[in-house]
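fwd from M.: "can u put these together and see what the complex looks like"

so here's what she sent:
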Amino acid sequence: MHAARFLTQSYQPGLVLLSIAVAILAGYAALDLVNRVHAAQRRYAWIWIAAGAVTLGSGIWSMHFIGMLALILPIHMSYAVWPTALSWLMAVAASAVALRLACRTQLDRGPWFAGSAFMALGIVSMHYTGMYAMEITPGIVYDPVWVALSVLVALVGSAAALGLSFALRGLSRRFLRVRKCIAAVFMGIAIAGMHYSGMAAAEFPAATHALTTVGVEKSWLALLISSLSVVLLSATLLAAALDRRLETQTAELVASLQEANEQLRHSSYHDALTNLANRKLLGERISHEIQRASRRGSGFALFYLDLDGFKQLNDHLGHQAGDEALERVANAMRETVRDNDTIARMGGDEFVVLTAEVEAAADIDMLANRLLTAIREAGETAPGLSASIGWARFPDHGQTAQALVTAADRAMYWAKTHGKNSYVGYRAEMACQARDEFHLRRELGKALETEAITVYYQPKYRTSDGTLSGAEALVRWHHPQLGLITPDRFIPLAERSGQIDQLERVILDNVCRQIRDWRASGLTAPRISVNLSAARVSDPQLPDMVQRHLDRHGIEPQALLLEITESVSIKGMQETIGTLERFARMGIDVALDDFGTGHSSLSYLEQLPIQQLKIDRSFIRDLGPAMPQQAAIVSSIVTLAHNLGLDVVAEGVETEEQLHYVVELGCDEMQGYLFSRAVPADRFERLLGGMRYGERGLNRSPDAAPAMPARAPEFG
Ligand SMILES: Nc1nc2c(ncn2[C@@H]2O[C@@H]3COP(=O)(O)O[C@H]4[C@@H](O)[C@H](n5cnc6c(=O)[nH]c(N)nc65)O[C@@H]4COP(=O)(O)O[C@H]3[C@H]2O)c(=O)[nH]1
């Protein structure tokens, strides 16, 4: 009976599948667009909404239209233009609402339900308006149950689509595409489900016939519409993909910019070579630690470290070896302290360790000891590398970052000047020493620019006939307030402050000019010995510097003799040998000073290209009948040196008895207060002229040691 009242409906399976495919594509586009809208900047979001609404609406609409075209009825069918267009508009409006909702950062229940209801209304209206566009008579009869069901499907589908779009947004990029495809299939089925349940609600009375017979063949129309919608949807997806790519590129750019910023920030707080904290970061960390300790009423310790022997290592083995040593030391320190302690490089070979909790004296000692051991071990490939460590404790030794660092620095300096390779805690008396040194450094800087640095000369005599054999140039500093300052006080200071290069240039210039002046006034200047600082001996520039001074004053190299100390020659053996060989080629003799004060001195003697050996005055001091073994030592040194073809000079001869011994033991030359102290150049002039020791009673001059009887040694 039913069959007789209504037309039999069937569907073209190909078009049904096509409609579902378009629905799925539209679903995918919807999810993709939601992401775009959300990701886009605010001012571009509305463009995505507008373009997306047209695309999405057209997709949904074409799905419906293709679905309707899939319907096979035994009558000719055509569609009225305006209702069809209206149905398209409704689809676009529903899509716009959906996308607008998707812009929200979160979807609360209220807007979700309201949005879903509006979307469902849009889709349902689109569908039924589309049905209304069919130009048939009498009208379609709807089954209310199916209509309700179709509305329910539209509602559930819209709610699910909106919910899905939000759910997918928070997910990671992994498997996002697959998940989106699954969601799109689900949405496509929901859109198609709404349509086909809506179609199921429609019954066409048996008397139904077309209002017009004019119209386009519907299969072609379906193909055209589906192609257009596929093209539109694909174009939108492509645009979305391009936009996403652009966004990814931008994001990558932003990320690399952030990384560069991070690196910049890191490098502004870290030392490039060792990657340790720099002064700036250390300052911040100390201030932070001070605040923390003040709150808790606790304390903490700060260690200032300066490497011993680093400058020599750097000079002898080169900067690269120096850098490697610094890196090894930095790593060794890292392994010694706790992770939450801070190690900073203050520049050069100076470091600071800020401990977070070390406070008790025993713990401080233990850590200082561990640091010393670690640094010595790290310096295994660089013999002689150790550290001088000073420590200061908050709050006792300083209450600001600056005060603490200064206190620890002073303690370090104390350790350095009292033996090195050791540690010491800050004491108030250290402040004076540091202040003095700081002051003195500045004064020395000024003195180097003026005439305040002068050279004194101490004569040397031949033991064979008492004639003047030469003189040792000994530097003096005439300080306006402090008076005459001896080199023991300011040479180590100049070595530490880096002023030694300039100081030695001044001394060499002084000596060379003096020799030239003596000669110019008709005097025969003896060979003058010039001391070379320990810090400079291995400097490859040194021979050139000496040559420049000789050239400037027109002096031949034989007029000079250079003195190096034994400890220096042993430390940087290869480099020292290189420098000495260059001096030998230039025609300048070299003397090894303070001989006997080093450790393995004898074994090295053979290798050094030197011409003279100066026995340290500590050996000469004890010469006498009370200590016969001392004479035996000096005797073997003299024999050894002579076997090596070296001249021997006895330093520090103060008494007649010592004089007697040095002559007896076979020393070639002698020098000491018995003959004369170091005297200014004008006083030394009196000795020039070839006279022998004692002939003019030189030791009666105020420069000679007091109470020293004037007596010529018994030569020969
Ligand atoms: N007790 C005693 N001392 C005597 C006697 N005869 C000489 N002296 C002192 O012993 C030092 C000898 O110089 P040195 O061993 O090279 O030791 C020198 C040398 O290492 C360094 N020095 C001095 N002048 C220069 C210089 O121009 N350049 C460099 N690099 N170092 C210098 O300073 C050190 C000390 O120099 P000075 O104070 O001038 O002290 C000089 C000299 O005045 C003596 O009979 N008894």
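replying to her w this: Residues 695-716 have pLDDT under 50 and may be disordered.
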